[in-house]
């Protein structure tokens, strides 16, 4: 197995949980290449494997961003396709935001499977999947591309298991203490790829709070479960909220106990970024709570700063969705008999 991750903190977190060894404060991994995929392709031979999984950066396609068609991150699918070309896998998986299907790069990716293209030996299907339909306590829609060698049958997509009975936030946070510890991560440091990082932290050690201005605390107190900035009296509204009485209902919003969470993004710790207030407590959800909503196991370990770890949690594919896809591909690999 080989993993490639340009974000040093995310690479260290992967190493902590997948074969890395922490020796005298130095984290070593025979599995993780910490650096850009283009550099990896230049410096190493790509091993032949049964399966390639990748998630090129989605920010250039995201509806939340400026959707710059010239964003260099949009072009990273090329390195992904080159990896598939060199690894000769039976199957490959690519995930991205739904807007990817409407992008020019998706058309170029499709053309790559034509004769003479990087992926001419492969065929693929793309589908938008909702993580909540597969047992995640989160409504998160992602494009999943399942590719297969042209000599093999399509692996098909996993069958949704939770349609009509989505897991709720209350179920995801069962057993998590309501109160949080004082602000700030408490722990040591480690060195990975010549970089000093915070950690290793257990998931439970991420259940810490934030320091809020009094204005924020006063605002939180006025917002009921399921409510948002529209519930605030005028004297607690930002000037732009008074002028604009429509728009996103998730800004400064509280989550609901009996529904799945909204999509956990990389800045879930900022209430002005979305519906991330705890259902009953006057605070945003903690990193630990966000990790549970994403489906990370209790024994998962983390490396990096407060913002590093939030980015890792928000960028992750919800574990129940990833597991469903993984089981489907495992069965396909087992059944093809090679």
Task: Tell me what you see in this structure.
With 338 residues, this protein is an alpha+beta fold. The chain has 2 domains: 178 residues, Rossmann fold, CATH 3.40.50; 145 residues, DNA Methylase, subunit A, domain 2 (DNA Methylase, Chain A, domain 2). The protein contains 10 helices and 11 strands. The strands form 4 sheets. The chain has a 4-stranded mixed beta sheet with strand order 5-6-8-7, sandwiched between helices. A 3-stranded antiparallel beta sheet has the order 9-10-11. Strands 1-4 form a two-stranded parallel ribbon. Helix 8 runs parallel beside helix 9.
Distance separating the two termini: 18 Å
Helix- and strand-based class? Answer: alpha+beta
- CATH C-level class of the largest domain is Alpha Beta
Tally of individual domains: 2
How large, in whole angstroms, is the Cα Rg? Answer: 21 Å
Describe this structure in a few short sentences.
This protein is α+β, with helices and mostly antiparallel strands and 338 residues long. Helices cover 26% and strands 16% of the residues. It has 10 helices and 11 strands.
Topology of this protein?
Blueprint: E1 3-5, H1 8-17, E2 21-23, E3 26-28, E4 32-34, H2 37-43, E5 51-54, H3 77-87, E6 91-96, H4 104-111, E7 122-130, E8 141-149, H5 169-172, E9 189-192, E10 195-202, H6 214-222, H7 239-243, H8 287-294, E11 301-303, H9 306-315, H10 319-335
Parallel strand pairs: 1-4, 5-6
Antiparallel strand pairs: 2-3, 6-8, 7-8, 9-10, 10-11
Helix pairs in contact: 8-9
């Amino acid at each position: 197995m080989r993993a490639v991750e340009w974000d040093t903190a995310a690479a260290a977190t992967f190493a902590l949980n997948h074969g890395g060894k922490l020796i005298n404060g130095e984290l070593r991994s025979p599995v993780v290449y910490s650096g850009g995929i283009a550099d990896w392709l230049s410096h190493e031979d790509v091993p032949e494997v049964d399966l390639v999984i990748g998630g090129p950066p989605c920010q250039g396609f995201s509806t939340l961003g400026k959707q710059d068609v010239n964003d260099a991150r949009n072009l990273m699918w090329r390195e992904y396709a080159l990896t598939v070309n060199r690894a000769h896998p039976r199957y490959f998986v690519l995930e991205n935001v739904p807007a990817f299907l409407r992008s020019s790069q998706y058309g170029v990716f499709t053309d790559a499977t034509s004769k003479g293209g990087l992926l001419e030996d492969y065929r693929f299907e793309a589908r938008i999947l909702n993580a909540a339909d597969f047992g995640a306590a989160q409504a998160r829609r992602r494009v999943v591309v399942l590719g297969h060698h042209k000599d093999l049958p399509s692996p098909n997509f996993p069958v949704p298991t939770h349609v009509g009975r989505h897991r709720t936030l209350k179920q995801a946070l069962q057993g998590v203490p309501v109160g949080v510890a004082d602000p700030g991560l408490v722990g040591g440091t480690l060195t990975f790829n010549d970089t000093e990082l915070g950690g290793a932290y257990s998931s439970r050690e991420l259940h810490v709070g934030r320091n809020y201005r009094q204005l924020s605390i006063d605002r939180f107190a006025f917002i009921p479960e399921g409510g948002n900035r529209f519930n605030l009296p005028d004297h607690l509204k930002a000037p732009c909220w008074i002028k604009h009485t429509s728009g996103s209902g998730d800004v400064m919003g509280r989550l609901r106990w009996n529904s799945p969470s909204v999509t956990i993004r990389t800045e879930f710790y900022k209430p002005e970024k979305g519906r991330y207030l705890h259902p009953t407590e006057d605070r945003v959800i903690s990193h630990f709570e966000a990790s549970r909503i994403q489906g990370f196991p209790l024994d998962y370990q983390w490396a990096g700063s407060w913002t590093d770890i939030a980015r890792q949690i928000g960028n992750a594919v919800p574990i129940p969705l990833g597991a469903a896809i993984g089981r489907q591909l495992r069965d396909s690999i087992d059944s093809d008999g090679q």
